[in-house]
Amino acid sequence: MSSESESLDAELETTTLDGEGVDLSMVIDLQRCTGCGACNIGCAQENNLQEGMAYSSRIIETNGEFPNVSYEYTPTLCNQCDDAPCAEGCPTSALHKGKGGITMHDHETCIGCKSCMINCPYDEIHLNEEDPHPTWESEEATIESGTASARAVKDRAGVDDDVDAPAYYNPNREVSETEHPTRYKGIVEKCNFCVHRLERDELPRCVEECPCEARIFGDRNDPDSTVNEVLAKYNPDVLKADEGTEPSVNYVRDYNGGSYERGTGEPGLGD
Amino acid sequence: MSHAEGETVVSSLKSSGKRYYAWLAFIGLGFLIGGYGVLVTLIEGTSVLGITGQVPWGILISTYVFFALLSTGICIGITSLSSVFGMERYEPLVKRGVLLSLITLAAGGAVIMAGLGQPVRAIPAMVLSPNPSAPMWWMIVLYSVYGGALVAEFVLIDRVDDPPRRLSRTVAVVALIAPILAGATLGAIFGTAEARPYYGGLFASVFLLVTAVASGVALITAVTVIERKLSSATEAVVSEELITRTLGKYLGVATAAVFLVTGLRHAYGLTATNEALATAHQQMLFGGTGLWAVGIGMGVGLLVPMVLMAVPRTRTVGGVLAASVLVLVGMFVSRLEFVLGGQVVALTNDPSNQFPIASYAPSAAELAIVVMGFALFAGLYTAGRALFDLDELPHHEEDTMSHTTHVPDGGETDE
Predict the structure, then answer these.
(1) Where are the domains of chain A?
(2) How far is B108 from chain A (nearest CA, A)?
(3) What does the H/E/C string look like for B326-383?
(4) Are B135 and B192 in contact (CB under 8 A)?
(5) N vs C: which end of chain A shows fewer Cβ within 10 Å?
(6) Residue B277 pLDDT > 80
(7) Whole-angstrom Cα distance, residue B402 to residue B399?
(8) In a domain? residue B358
(9) Contact residues for B181 (Cβ-Cβ < 8 A; gap 6+)
(10) Contact status, residue B346 vs residue B360, Cβ threshold 8 Å
(11) Which residues are listed as membrane-spanning (chain B) (predicted)?
């Protein structure tokens, strides 16, 4: 772990999640981000996400025509908006503003009406259209006589069908009222800054996984936090500022991919 | 009052023999198809629906909006004119209108429940974990109040001889105000989605209420005209003048109003400097959806009925029926156009999503649930007309507030 990560960890240890006035925030340094996707993979592992579901994703914009093309990669996640339209429009308060200013989601009161998906300007809320891990019931082996079937793995793991704990049970997520060790169909889900990790004073998985330390996480209301230091140093941006949602995810140091002299392949003035 | 004497609708239907049983078989087939859709969605999950992460609201939502606003429109546009404002010319339509309002509300509720990810917990969660900042929560509360008022209004008409005027009036006023507020909050669900300017913000509520009245008038007109053909009892109560002079003209004006607000909505959208808004309108009007959104939604569903009702020669009973049915078809299509229009432009260029246009096609399960909605509507109405005398006029004590003189032959004049 680098000194910067250690510093963020140390900050987190002094931050009480339940404390009044704590406003957890993330800054993404676009000059540091290489677009490797480690955040997305780490997030999927941490949250048992099935194929096609991503709490941590990216926006890609390609402009111009060859050879004058610019390419922009922006990592994305739920913006944990201060003025969250998803929470305002949720009829059952399943989505609500929780501790640390995180936009929380209660699986047990979500009715799957999808109004949050309509209200979110960032496409960051996802519906579990079917059981996230149906293959765990499959008797079929990927390679016959070569690999165990999913069902066999589940049996070997000692998971009793009578207990509501399938093979993908993740005890790490069983730490608070709004985190669930298992995931199921018919409800929406979203990033919550890995609140189950925050409860244990661990950084969100995407922050921890980033090899370039492009993600900086901390309390916006702590004047000495690294987040505030970075935000003060640079001119931060948020996605779709005109929507007025006041995101808690900020971007600094907009990346310029550079350009090349037409026909020569040499770096141009913009690089 | 329930059927007791003389020629009843049910006896009339029974006398029509095979047609009656064919109709029941048709409804049964609808329930069978709808049952498949509901069951497969409950078992497999919403993955069997055509919705996606980018288009989470599809034909089930638009069908719900269609039915809910039919109910809203009948009450605001027809029954309240008699029960609240004392316009006696609409009295023959009140009992049938209240029943139609109830069953369209039920059909809409059934369709939207079938499309929820967790339908079983929907009602308990609304009660135990309410969110008063959400228009959807208010809509459900207000439609529940409205449903209760409709039941009370129907019971007062059907079961109580000479009900107290004050009670009838109170129930009728609730049955007018509740759907106005419910329809407005239904509009607010769309209108408050600032990320989707196609819905028109505050204008969404106004737009939906105006279209609700037109669709409600169309439904009650269509059903009443068909009933007149089936039953001499209805023919005796509902005069041809009421159909052609009152309802026909009313439908024409309401359709023109819808044409105006629809045109304004699209004109504003197409000329907007907001690129997402302009793109959405271009896509819905001139893209692949244009054929049905413009052709059926505006052409067949608005323009043709408007012309039919504007020309005296075509404002006959048959012409009014044709116009009503066309308005209903057009309105069903327009609801889908409205719901999809807000989602057709992709919000982000995430490579796992469609960009810049998000497409949607209803699945077999979704269409089956829509069929279930119509079967439920038809089934409940068929049961209602068999159980109750829908041609009964509301009983009330002498209304000193009335400004209408009832003429026995069915023609009425406002003073």
Answers:
(1) 3-81+97-103+191-252, 134-167
(2) 14
(3) HHHHHHHHHHHHHHHHCCCECCCCCCCCCCCECCCCCCHHHHHHHHHHHHHHHHHHHH
(4) yes
(5) N
(6) yes
(7) 6
(8) yes
(9) B138, B142
(10) no
(11) 20-43, 55-85, 97-116, 136-157, 169-190, 202-226, 247-264, 284-308, 320-340, 360-381
Can you tell me whether residue B250 is helix, strand or coil? helix
CATH number at residue B382: 1.20.1630.10
pLDDT of residue A271: 42
Cα(B137)–Cα(A178) distance, rounded to whole angstroms? Answer: 21
Following CA atoms B90, B93, B99, B102 in sequence, which dihedral angle do they give, to the nearest 10 degrees? -40
Whole-number Å distance between alpha carbons of A92 and A116: 11
A-chain residues within 8 Å CB-CB of B56? 114, 117-118, 127
Residues of B in contact with A244 (CB under 8 A): 194
Q: Is the peptide bond before A166 cis (omega within 30 degrees of 0)?
A: no
Which of B44, B140, B194 is the closest to A243 by Cβ? Answer: B194
Count of A-B CB contacts under 8 Å:
143
Residue A67 pLDDT level (bands cut at 50, 70, 90): confident
Measured CA to CA, the distance from residue B93 to residue A265 in angstroms comes to 79
Please state which CATH class domain A3-81+97-103+191-252 belongs to: alpha beta
Cβ–Cβ below 8 Å for A89 and B195: no
Could you report the per-residue pLDDT of A11-42, keeping only the tens digit for each?
887 777 777 789 999 999 999 999 999 999 99
- Give Cα A220 distance to the centre of its chain: 18
Distance from C-alpha of B335 to C-alpha of A192, rounded to nearest angstrom? 35
**For residues B12 and A41, which has the higher predicted lDDT (pLDDT)?**
A41
A-interface mutation test, from B47, B112, B131, B340, most A Cβ less than 10 A away: B131
In a domain, B412, yes or no: no
Alpha helices, DSSP H, located in B76-164: 80-83, 91-115, 122-128, 135-159
Question: From the DSSP assignment, how many helices (H) and strands (E) are in chain A?
Answer: 8, 9
CA distance to A8, B115, B323, B395, per residue, from B63 (Å): 51, 11, 20, 35
pLDDT in tens, B366-397: 999 999 999 999 999 999 999 999 998 887 55
Instruction: Work out the pLDDT band at A200, boundaries 50, 70, 90.
Output: confident
> In the predicted model, what is the mean pLDDT of residues A124-134?
87
Quick one: average pLDDT of B190-217? 97
B353: nearest CB among A115, A123, A240: A123
Residue B402 has pLDDT above 70, yes or no: no
Domain of residue B324, residue span = 23-392
Q: Show Cβ contacts of residue B196 under 8 Å, excluding neighbours closer than 6 positions.
A: A118, B190, B342, B343
B292: three-class secondary structure by DSSP: helix
| DSSP per residue, A215-239 | EEEEETT-TTSHHHHHHHHS--B-T
Identify whether B221 is part of a domain. Answer: yes
Residue B404 has pLDDT above 60, yes or no: no
Q: Read off the pLDDT band of B177 (50, 70, 90).
A: very high
State the total domains in chain B. 1
Interface of A with B in 212-241 (CB under 8 A): 240
Question: What is the per-residue pLDDT for B405?
Answer: 42
In a domain, B182, yes or no: yes
Considering only residues 152 to 181 of chain A, which have any Cβ-Cβ distance to chain B shorter than 8 Å?
none
Task: Among A105, A110, A118, pick the best mutation site for testing chain B contact (most B Cβ within 10 A).
Answer: A118
pLDDT of res. A136: 73
B345: which strand partners? B357
Nearest CA in chain B to A91: B137
Q: What is the mean pLDDT of chain B?
A: 92
